[in-house]
Amino acid sequence: LIEAGYRCANPTCRGIITIDVHHIVSVKKGGGNKPNNLLALCPNCHALVHREKISKRAIEAWKGLIVSLNNPNRASADVLLALYDEQKRFGNDSQSKEHVAPQFRFSGDSLGFLAGLITSGLAEISRRFLGASMFGASHPTFEVRLTKKGMSLVTAWRDGDPEAIAATLSGGSHDGVKFGDSAKAEVIKEKGKSS
User: Fold this and answer.
1) Can you tell me the distance from the alpha carbon of 154 to that of 1, in angstroms, rounded to the nearest whole number?
2) Containing structural domain, residue 16
3) Is the pLDDT of residue 74 over 70?
4) What is the distance between the alpha carbons of residues 151 and 84, in angstroms, rounded to a whole number?
5) Which ranges carry the HNH nuclease domain (predicted)?
6) Is residue 92 domain-shared with residue 178, that is, in the same domain?
């Protein structure tokens, strides 16, 4: 439950957990009660899994991403989902030619909280501001948005696509987007590329 932040691991639900913990591999089939075989789900999503409305593939994808995002900061998953939802809602694409300001502005003391997402290339600081507080001291703020890599990762997570998650996190490519070490996504030019 701590691993999932006491919330359902289904990224489209994220309901607060009461007690349901799902065995990824059932105990009857040799799965145990160790943390690597358990996934926190709300009672509704847990029932959907057992009725086979949610695939085993999606469960494995959610578990993998929850584990990787929650080391060391378990709130990263919720921040990724919030940024994703806002960028989708307002059509803010980090790769668009016209800059559309992201919807979230953070104070300078939030940098440590967001550092993991920024250094992994899932989010980026798009603009910095230096303002004055009521007492005359400077108060830095900055705007954050998801990168193309971050958008692709959350899309794959919500879709329950472990191959797309792995490709995004490993620096591979998925859906015409290649993810490199620089944390910036480059669109792969499929046709008309000269050698």
Assistant:
1) 21
2) 1-71
3) no
4) 6
5) 1-47
6) yes
